[in-house]
Structures are given as structure tokens and as C-alpha cells.
Design a protein that fits this description.
about 100 residues, 2 domains, single chain, elongated, mainly alpha
Length: about 100
């Protein structure tokens, strides 16, 4: 075994002797809590609500992009329209039809 492997095993053995298992588990919980606290802005992203108005706006942008032969942009806008459209709405059907 190389020196690094020996050093790691020595540290693990010392950890096992000096820190009881339940304290290690609590340390994991503390580490997790701290990780979440540091990244709270990334985790708590508000969900955008369904909106037929937004769906219509994206579909219209898609129509303009399609007319200008910017097909990738049109597809992106139609997909956004579908994402925002309320379930079972006319906007949902129109988004799929345009796409």
C-alpha cells in the first residue's frame, strides 16, 4: 500500500476510535444542513405558475420566429408555450399544433 493509502487508513482507524458512530451520523447531518444553507438560493427557486396569457405570448413569439425562418427559436418558443399552458386549455392544443 502506498503512503497515501496508509495515511487514509490510519485516519479512518483514529476516527473510529475517537468518534462514536452516533456522533459521526450527527456530523453528516450537520454537514448536510450546512450544504443546504449555503445553497438555499439554488434550491428554493419559485415555481412559475401555469398561465394561458404567458403561453399565448410565447406562441406568438414562436409564430414571428417561424415567419422569419428562425426555426430553432420558434421551436423553443412553442415548447415554452406548452409548458405555460394550463391543462386542457385551447393554448395547450395550439402550442402542440404549432410545434
Amino acid at each position: 500500500m502506498d503512503q497515501l493509502g496508509t495515511a487514509i487508513n490510519t485516519l479512518r482507524s483514529r476516527l473510529d476510535r475517537e468518534m462514536p458512530r452516533h456522533r459521526r451520523r450527527n456530523a453528516d447531518i450537520v454537514d448536510y444542513r450546512d450544504f443546504i444553507a449555503q445553497r438555499d438560493a439554488l434550491i428554493n427557486v419559485p415555481e412559475v405558475a401555469k398561465s394561458n396569457e404567458l403561453a399565448d405570448r410565447h406562441r406568438q413569439h414562436g409564430n414571428r420566429a417561424y415567419a422569419a425562418k428562425r426555426f430553432d427559436e420558434a421551436l423553443l418558443q412553442y415548447n415554452q408555450s406548452i409548458c405555460f399552458a394550463e391543462r386542457g386549455s385551447k393554448q395547450l392544443g395550439m402550442g402542440y399544433a404549432n410545434r
